[in-house]
Design goal:
Layout lengths: L2 H14 L4 H17 L3 H17 L3 H5 L2 H10 L3 H18 L4 H15 L3 H14 L5 H17 L3 H15 L5 H10 L1
């Protein structure tokens, strides 16, 4: 669906759930990603900040800690990996304190990408290992993001054939989804 159409769908949903602050906040987070895809990064970040604030006020700690799963990729899309790291690391640490074992794997994989883009390769490698250790084998989001970072790291360490193989596996996995934006990201990494 084109960004403009998806944006209108989200705005319609936001109207319907306006009286439920939690649902409205979560919808604003999704709308923020669409706003970033339209290259309005400032408004996208502001929407995430407002949504996190609302979720914090409501005591929805886990949902508040998941805002970086959108805000981090927004900053990566804006080519601001240090900014993405701040968002992702805060929530990575919050999820660790909560003892959360599901979403932390994806948060770690995205954090690995942010750290990789800042050329802190050993730290990125540790985050990939942590992510893969916790992730279920059928958790495609984690396997794809971690696989891409792992492939780039492996190639950088002097084993381009294995790195390309890891990236081709990520391509195979992402092509089984309805995520054209994610498909573009994975192909770009390859």
């Amino acid at each position: 669906m084109p960004v403009s159409e998806a944006t209108q769908v989200c705005r319609d949903i936001l109207e319907r759930v306006a009286s439920d602050r939690r649902s409205a906040a979560m919808t604003r987070v999704d709308l923020a990603l669409l706003t970033a895809m339209a290259l309005d990064f400032d408004d996208a970040r502001e929407a995430c900040i407002e949504a996190r604030h609302t979720l914090d006020e409501l005591g929805a700690d886990t949902q508040a800690a998941l805002v970086s799963l959108i805000n981090g990729p927004i900053d990566l899309l804006a080519d601001q990996p240090a900014r993405a790291e701040v968002e992702l690391r805060r929530d990575y640490e919050a999820l660790q304190r909560m003892g959360e074992h599901n979403f932390i794997a994806l948060t770690a994989a995205l954090l690995a990408e942010a750290v990789y883009r800042q050329e802190r390769f050993d730290e990125a490698d540790d985050l990939v290992a942590f992510s893969r250790e916790l992730a279920a084998p059928d958790d495609l989001a984690v396997q794809i993001v971690a696989g891409c970072v792992d492939g780039k790291l492996t190639a950088r360490r002097g084993d381009p054939a294995t790195g390309v193989a890891l990236l081709r596996e990520a391509v195979r996995l992402i092509e089984s989804t309805d995520d054209p934006s994610g498909q573009g990201d994975v192909w770009l990494d390859l």
